[in-house]
Design goal:
This protein has 158 residues and is an alpha/beta fold. It has one domain: Alpha-Beta Complex (YbaK protein), CATH 3.90.960. 28% of the residues lie in helices and 26% in strands. It has a 5-stranded mixed β-sheet.
Length: 158
Amino acid sequence: MIEEFNKIKQKLDGAGIEYRTIEHGDKPEDSDRALGYDPDDRPHHAGAKAIVIKGRKSKNYYHFTLPDDCRLDQKKVKAVIGERWSFAPGEEVKEVTHCIPGSVPPFGSCIGLQTHIAKALTDNEKIFFNAGSLTNSIEMRLEDFVVVEKPIEVDVTE
């Protein structure tokens, strides 16, 4: 998991991107507090959560990044991937991403998946996220994330 965190930092450093890393406890409110967000005001729209889903027919995995305060819309996601889907079970998430659920970063490219970013996340100037670890977070400008990751922007939230 630290390996994924280091891959992300190498990618950002290699592109000359400014970012801030924070080490914190393993509870969601710990990362909020460490980054200066009110943990009592969860979830945060600037929190970028990464979700891995699995196509029911193809068995392919897909990586979606959306605001922490949003949910995936079944029909919109189906329209994007062309099939019915379900959330990848925790053990499969760990096997595919090398990260435990809750620590999957928005950088699908660092874990072998194409990143799809929800249009709703693009409302933010900055985003913050767990970076392959429940105890390491990164905060960075959304514009820089888009430049370095080159995600596919999709409308997939409710």
